[in-house]
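Exercise 7.
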Amino acid sequence: MAYKRIVGALIPILGLPLLGGCFISEQEVAVPPPLPPTPAATTVIVTPPSQQVLTYSEGRYELRGDGRTVPYYWVWIPAGANPPWPPQPAS
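Solution. The predicted structure, written as tokens, is:
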């Protein structure tokens, strides 16, 4: 008898979703307008300053040139001397 009461109580609870169909909630969502296209970025490679100068007790090496119009080259500058004019790069 108790079995019939439990089953009888469960049928309305379990059977309602099957008999009632699906419940779908529709909600409008605001979509922001698309962003304007960004201009293409230009990549510039710059040699960090720590790699442009190597210092020793007798003097220092300086990296000269830009790598595009003038090739990179190292210049030795003795300690206590003024930097010399950059030599003409080899053609």
